[in-house]
Amino acid sequence: MSDQEPGEASTPPEHDRRLDLRYVGPLDGCYTLSSHLDLVSGAGVLPFRTLSISSSQVTITGPVTGRVGDNLTAKIDGFGIIRGTIERVTADGLTFRIIATERHRLRIAVKIDFLKQKASRKQSDRRVSKRRQPRDLRSTLALPDGRILNCLVVDFSRSGAAIATPIKPQLSDRVVVGRVAGHVVRYLPSGLGIQFDEKQKIEGLEELLTGYEVISESTRIEPAA
């Protein structure tokens, strides 16, 4: 027997806005069209990469087999097993609608929310780590063998710097640019890419990196043009 008074309207359950979220980006996965789950053995499994995923629909790119209406079982990195029905087939992929309970959809939505927040943090970090060009390019490069040489700082961010120098240390060699320690991560046409050991505060970083010069002529090596 309902406790609701006659004529009283029932209140619909509140909609969880996370169910409306969609993550646009690549996630690796695989799927099979067989009627049984065979993602472990690898038989009949096709690899794919997502273009987008929501709690109700997934769009993928990859080798296409199957037709509209076919059932599939997919395994997506971070999401596990998801079952669905093909809604649309394109030249390089397909879209399938997720078949799941509301509880499962909510779990998918929570993971999508996490991915979107993670992507937002990365974007924020990229903005914070925007590369800058110093006013005074002069700096010094301390090498593992103890030599300190002149170089130029082409640009820098909180996480690293590009320097101009004719010297080519080994990749992963520890060096010090100005007063900031790091290691060599790549070779550039006119120098080196340095990653700092620790992400730096942008305030005052230029002063730690530039404005230095080796005075002794016996150790001086002119920086690259």
Write a short abstract of this structure.
The protein has helices at 102-128, 205-209; strands at 22-24, 28-32, 46-54, 57-61, 71-76, 80-90, 93-98, 138-142, 148-156, 160-164, 174-177, 180-188, 191-196. By secondary structure, the protein is mainly β. The model is unreliable at 1-12 (pLDDT under 50).
What does this structure look like?
The chain folds into two domains: 17-127, Beta Barrel (Thrombin, subunit H); 138-209. Helix content is 14%, strand content 37%. The radius of gyration is 28 Å and the shape is elongated. The chain has 225 residues and is mainly beta. A hairpin with a 2-residue loop joins strand 3 (46-54) and strand 4. The relative contact order is 0.11. The strands form two sheets. The chain has a six-stranded antiparallel beta barrel. Strands 8-9-10-13-12-11 form a six-stranded antiparallel barrel. The termini are far apart.
* Global mean pLDDT: 82
Number of domains: 2
Whole-Å distance between the termini? 88 Å
SSE-based structural type: mainly beta
**Low-confidence parts:** 1-12
Tell me the β content. 35-45%
In CATH, the topology of the largest domain is named Thrombin, subunit H
